[in-house]
Design brief:
- The structure is a homodimer of 266-residue chains.
- Chain A is of the alpha/beta class and 266 residues long.
- Helix content of chain A is 41%, strand content 17%.
- Chain A has a six-stranded parallel β-sheet with strand order 4-3-1-2-9-10.
């Protein structure tokens, strides 16, 4: 394949915008189609069978938009469906697990590594398996944090006492584990990065989108032009608030001109 | 129409089981088909167009099961889609608004009435309009509580400090309104009834499912046999935890033998 002309990026909703934001920060000349499945968000509390069916429809929509490669900007899909998607489709598809695990192992001194994510992500143990493939001596702890996505999507600020109490509840499960690095295994979680960091100041929190965007040039033959990135935004349900939050927190993406798609048809 | 042979009941997820529980408590000889759209829950943060499309599919599935009448055990669908559903389908369809408003007006001395619900329910103002139709002098206050459904579905106990803090946050918006009655406009909320009551001990909280079940005999020609109710359960995604919670809190329904349906096909 020659230079990548068009890249597809998708997420269960709009958390994947944190990934897109990192990609746009570190690259130029990209032509990106972003799809957020806002009519069926969240994926993380559903069964693997349902998540896979939804992800296949998401990929088929992106194919209809002429993308040549796909980046899964969703922790739940990356951890539960990557083998199935790679089997069903012939174009290159990349998830966030590998980059996230590599970054965590680079960051960790003790090789005691935590993972936070949705229920489906933690149940898959995909981050943990990959870490041990890369470093058999590493020890891992997974903690599911099912309330983080609803908190973020419903506009609770990172320093809201309810957010703080929820962060405290989930992170306290790492007590005694002695982790020095925690992978934010869901692409929504960077919205909570400061709060997480305040609760565990000595721990490095890994933003999987950032990790992925660093190495994107190794995965794909990216354009070498300096023209600004061009992004088309599609969602399966119209904006009901979260897009405003995304615009407030993200600096490298616009999230304007959002078009609606009936994803059931794909 | 003669005696109702088969009643369909549906909800965005499993909150509607609180309604089914009340119906089964006060009636006998019923043959009920329950459908919970667990593959697409929650509805309350989506647009009216998407909610209506989902609700139409839910009704078509119940029709395929031979139901003769339908009860919408979902605040969001009742408040946003009842006219559209009544127009699209010829069988009798009943929502929770009317019974909820009648019960609130019976309960309220001051006719200062609050409504709590999902974002879509509160935006619709459907409860508030119906209350003023029934009692033009009544005053109403609507407060959206988008975190309640995720808290309940993710197993946060009613007395969990995070639940308590969230209840306090939302109910504090009624400060100064002087309401003596609040309609729980979402069928999930009875799971939080005790916590809500503790935070506002002088207020009557209306369970719309209970209100509806009292008057069901007036709406439908129900069977007069004393045989136990028979319920078939269907969901669009398999149980991922909430069903256990439902079984723990509900006394009149079993929620066993749950079958899975691909709702996209309807």
């Amino acid at each position: 394949m020659g230079t990548l002309k068009r890249l597809g990026v998708f997420d269960s909703g709009l958390g994947g915008l944190t990934v897109l934001n990192e990609i746009c920060k570190y690259n130029t000349g990209l032509d990106v189609v972003y799809f957020g499945d806002t009519a069926r968000v969240p994926y993380g509390s559903r069964t693997v069978e349902t998540i896979t069916r939804y992800a296949e429809q998401d990929v088929r929509f992106l194919l209809s938009q002429g993308v040549e490669a796909i980046l899964i900007a969703c922790g739940t899909v990356s951890t539960n469906c990557l083998p199935a998607l790679t089997k069903s489709f012939s174009l290159p598809i990349v998830g966030v697990i590998d980059a996230g695990c590599q970054a965590a192992l680079r960051s960790s001194r003790t090789k005691r590594i935590g993972v936070i994510g949705t229920r489906a992500t933690i149940n898959s143990r995909a981050y943990e398996h990959r870490i041990r493939e890369l470093c058999p001596d590493a020890q891992t702890w997974g903690v599911e944090c099912p309330l983080f996505v609803p908190l973020i999507e419903n506009g609770f600020a990172p320093d809201d006492p309810i957010t703080e109490l929820t962060v405290d509840r989930y992170l306290s499960q790492f007590k005694g584990a002695g982790v020095d690095t925690i992978i934010m295994g869901c692409t929504h979680y960077p919205f909570l990065a400061k709060t997480l960091q305040n609760h565990m100041p000595d721990v490095s929190f890994i933003n999987v989108g950032k990790a992925l965007s660093y190495g994107l040039k190794e995965q794909f033959d990216l354009p070498r032009t300096q023209t600004p990135n061009r992004v088309s935004y599609f969602v399966s349900d119209e904006d009901t608030g979260f897009l405003d939050i995304a615009r407030r927190y993200l600096d490298a993406v616009q999230a304007d001109n959002v078009q609606k798609v009936n994803i059931d048809q794909f």
